[in-house]
């Protein structure tokens, strides 16, 4: 019988917990390394509807990108929906393991998956964090595009309905691009320092957008939910590893959208 620890050991080879950004609560969130596993589900987020899906499908192990517990619980009063979710996870014997910034920073992890999704060439590390490891990537577009066409390109490649363009010049030509998966707005100065034509990241703050324009930087904000690429890539990796290691484990991916926003166009 395959146990959580066998799967986690393999995950840690490609996504070491040690490279996660300082204070990022990656790894085991709830559960036990000794727990037997017959079914894994991959997801971007662990939310109540995701947990209900896991329970209905008899999942033993949830592997998520965003940690279940960003902040410690002060109590376990189930009147709080977050606490009620923890209670359901525990009551149903589910282990949750999260791979967050260690996936963003790993070789062949989230940043490289996104670079491939955008068809970037000459891909290189971008933005060293406090540990001296690149949390993003930079590269060249297949061909130069105007700022407006670049935003549409990102929208098409990431298969999203809406992308926000921040630029002083819609006709500015874009060739070199840097990006940070998820919310990387605090790193935009690095794109200016390196002379990149554009920067991609989610959750850009209103006043930060003004500062980006003043600095002459073009930015595309595709939203945070584009990190959903994690659940698909992780699903494929786990299926491959199950076959290689003869783990008698089924791997599924969550069908639930955890995007809190609706694009009404």
Question: How would you describe this protein?
Answer:
- With 265 residues, the protein is α/β, with parallel strands linked by helices.
- The mean pLDDT is 97.
- It folds into 2 domains: 126 residues, 3-Layer(aba) Sandwich (Udp-n-acetylmuramoylalanyl-d-glutamate--2,6- Diaminopimelate Ligase, Chain: A, domain 1), CATH 3.40.1390; 116 residues, Udp-n-acetylmuramoylalanyl-d-glutamate--2,6- Diaminopimelate Ligase, Chain: A, domain 1.
- Helix 2 runs parallel beside helix 3.
- The strands form 2 sheets. The protein has a 6-stranded mixed β-sheet with strand order 5-6-8-9-10-7. Strands 1-4-3-2-11 form a 5-stranded mixed β-sheet.
- The chain contains 9 helices and 11 strands.
Characterize the overall form. globular
What's the architecture of the largest domain, going by CATH? 3-Layer(aba) Sandwich
What is the first-to-last residue Cα distance? 49 Å
Order of helices and strands: HEEHEHEHHEEHEEHEHEHE
Radius of gyration: 19 Å
Question: What is the CATH class designation of the largest domain?
Answer: Alpha Beta
Number of helices: 9
* Total number of beta strands: 11
Q: State which percent range the strand residues make up.
A: 15-25%
Q: What ranges have pLDDT less than 50 throughout 5 or more consecutive residues?
A: none
- State the major sheet: 6 strands, mixed
The strand line-up of the biggest sheet is: 5-6-8-9-10-7
Mean pLDDT score: 97
CATH superfamily of the largest domain: NIF3 (NGG1p interacting factor 3)-like
Assembly context of the chains: single chain
| Structural class computed from helices and strand pairing | alpha/beta
CATH topology of the largest domain: Udp-n-acetylmuramoylalanyl-d-glutamate--2,6- Diaminopimelate Ligase, Chain: A, domain 1
User: How many discrete domains?
Assistant: 2
Helical amount: 25-40%
């Amino acid at each position: 019988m395959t146990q959580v620890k066998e799967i986690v050991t393999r995950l840690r080879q490609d996504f070491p917990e040690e490279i996660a950004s300082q204070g990022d609560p990656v790894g085991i969130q709830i559960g036990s390394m000794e727990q037997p596993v017959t079914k894994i589900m991959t997801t971007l987020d662990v939310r109540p509807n995701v947990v209900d899906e896991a329970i209905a499908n008899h999942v033993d192990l949830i592997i998520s990108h965003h940690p279940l517990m960003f902040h410690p619980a002060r109590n376990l009063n189930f009147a709080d929906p977050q606490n009620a979710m923890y209670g359901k996870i525990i009551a149903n014997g589910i282990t949750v393991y999260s791979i967050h910034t260690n996936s963003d920073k790993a070789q062949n992890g989230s940043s490289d998956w996104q670079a491939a999704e955008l068809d970037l060439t000459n891909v290189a590390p971008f933005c060293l964090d406090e540990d001296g490891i690149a949390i993003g990537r930079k590269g060249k577009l297949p061909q130069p595009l105007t700022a407006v066409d670049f935003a549409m390109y990102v929208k098409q490649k990431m298969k999203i309905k809406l992308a926000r363009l921040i630029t002083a010049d819609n006709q500015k030509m874009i060739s070199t691009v840097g990006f940070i998966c998820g919310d990387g707005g605090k790193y935009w100065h690095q794109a200016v320092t390196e002379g990149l034509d554009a920067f991609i990241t989610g959750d850009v703050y209103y006043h930060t957008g003004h500062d980006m324009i003043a600095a002459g930087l073009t930015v595309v904000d595709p939203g945070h939910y584009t990190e959903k690429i994690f659940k698909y890539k992780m699903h494929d990796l786990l299926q491959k590893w199950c076959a290689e290691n003869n783990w008698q484990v089924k791997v599924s991916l969550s069908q639930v959208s955890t995007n809190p926003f609706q694009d009404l166009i």
